[in-house]
Design brief:
alpha+beta, 9-stranded mixed beta sheet, Aminopeptidase, 179 residues, single chain
Length: 179
């Protein structure tokens, strides 16, 4: 059996063909839960693609987002559009793609952030992600930060000692869910 080929590419260097394949994969995996704006959230950063015989069979992206932790700006990378073709789940392909994406986040000196599906929290914790237990907010919208709402399972990747996961974390606003 042929091994998948991994590729790390910036959004601006994605071919139209690869972008369409990656989006179709993510939409197939998440179905109707994947809103029209969700693919837009995955653009503007770094993508890791796993390809087999020219077909994108796994994808994950890390997109720059401004974070503010207890009043201090932090360079963030928000993980988006993580998907593995249904025929290849359980093969370790997702782990391989995420290993590469997490290495990119660390190499860029950024804080990795994501909003986990409830059933995947243990998966992410096993990879070194830590659940945010403090307040969450949006930069500059005038609202006071608040405890995580239903559906907000915000996690950060291997937070350094300077990051207090019981503190306040705010993110720049966007269309759709903030987290």
């Amino acid at each position: 059996m042929t091994e998948p080929c991994l590729e790390t590419v910036a959004t601006e260097d994605l071919t139209e063909h690869d972008a369409h394949q990656a989006e179709a994969l993510v939409r197939a995996v998440f179905g109707s839960e994947f809103e029209p704006h969700d693919w837009v959230h995955a653009l503007g950063g770094t993508h890791v693609l796993a390809r087999l015989d020219g077909l994108v069979i796994a994808h994950a992206a890390a997109v720059p987002r401004l974070l503010v932790h207890d009043g201090k700006e932090i360079d963030g990378r928000y993980v988006e559009a993580v998907a593995v073709d249904s025929d290849r789940r359980g093969t370790g392909l997702g782990r391989i793609v995420l290993d590469r994406l997490e290495a990119v986040i660390e190499d860029e000196g950024a804080l990795g952030v994501l909003n986990s599906l409830p059933g995947a929290i243990g998966f992410w914790e096993g990879r070194g992600w830590v659940r945010w237990r403090g307040l969450l907010g949006v930069v500059g919208n005038g609202e006071d930060p608040r405890p995580p709402a239903d559906g907000e399972n915000v996690m950060v990747f291997r937070p350094p000692s300077s990051i207090d996961v019981e503190g306040t974390l705010c993110v720049n606003n966007r269309v759709g869910p903030r987290w």
